[in-house]
């Protein structure tokens, strides 16, 4: 998330001071990404240094107002016009965690997938409830929440895929070892039995039903 451009967007239609910019940003995004007020003022100082905003006076309560400059407006609309590249997004910690988990002996990969799926389903239900309470006119907040709903659904589907891949890898490892046991770390880790195909099928079915339940009656 670009705090810099978020603040420029807040100043695009008028002068604001820091707390106003934070409140308006959280309102526009459904309060899904709260901003620290210290971060707001630090960013405003950098924007002023770079000539993208300028002070616009103070009120009786000594709030320092800022206005966007021509250079700032040009930067903002240039940002709107640029696609967001994959390189600009943070690393996917979950993908990295699972990539490492399948390479470390004794790690219960199935338990990691189960815990993450449970978390993703709970988040999906929370986002869906919040979206259902929004006024239809709150387009900006609705778009953000829809994005988070879709991301949660995609994560659940990907976790189902991961579980199936881990099971398939365990089977393939077993068949390549003539008369040898499957590598327990491939799916469950040392000391535990790997889940069966039936287990994976059941979990996938349950997560699919849970996803549908979370969104039932609350179509986007």
Automatic annotation (TrEMBL):
Residues 91-164 form the Transcription regulator PadR C-terminal domain. Residues 179-214 have a biased composition (Low complexity). Residues 171-220 are annotated as: Disordered. This is PadR family transcriptional regulator. InterPro entries: Tscrpt_reg_PadR_C, Tscrpt_reg_PadR_N, WH-like_DNA-bd_sf, WH_DNA-bd_sf. It comes from Catenulispora pinistramenti. Residues 7-76 form the Transcription regulator PadR N-terminal domain. It comes from the Bacteria.
